Amino acid sequence: MPKTAKHPSGESPAKQIAGFIAKFDPEVAKLIRAARTALRKLFPTSIEQVYDNYNFLVIGFCTTERTSDCIVSVAANSKGVGLSFYHGATLPDPHKILQGGGKQNRFIRLEGPATLKKAEVIAMLDAAAEQAKTPLPVNGAGHTMIKSVSENQRPRRAGPG
Q1: Element (H, E) at 144
Q2: Of 14, 24, 77, 121, which is least packed with CB atoms within 10 Å of its CB?
């Protein structure tokens, strides 16, 4: 994803994201990186929007620079990593893998990198891209946007016990 904007401090988005991920326990960090790599490969023309907010590190894969055009996000906190489907409530879910009961969002907890390779998860990702209001560009490469970074954040590492 070549087109990226530098942070006012001069840090590239790649360096900023590496710093965001480094706040997590090693196993969670590894899963965040695996999910991000898999989704970048699946959606190479998407716009990657990154939010390091109070509760979660969120890396969204969107068809435009509008957050509402997000297909799926990697959402991580100290307890683990999930795939969050912005419009998940309207997705077909024949295998009943989506969790959550809100009016819009649904998610899948990632137990490990193998979860990303399950046929039903891949089908869900394909369905989410298919239902996008604005389709992904056919050609070109996406880019990364650091949308926001919260000064105050919940701990990114699991506490004792």
Answers
A1: strand 143-149
A2: 14
What secondary structure does DSSP assign to 69-83, as a single string?
Answer: GEEEEEEEETTEEEE
List the domains of the chain with CATH numbers.
6-133 (3.90.1150)
Question: Global pTM?
Answer: 0.89
Tens of pLDDT, residue by residue, the chain (161 residues): 334 444 556 789 999 999 999 999 999 999 999 999 999 999 999 999 999 998 999 999 999 999 999 999 999 999 999 999 999 999 999 999 999 998 999 999 999 999 999 999 999 999 999 999 999 988 988 999 999 888 888 778 887 65
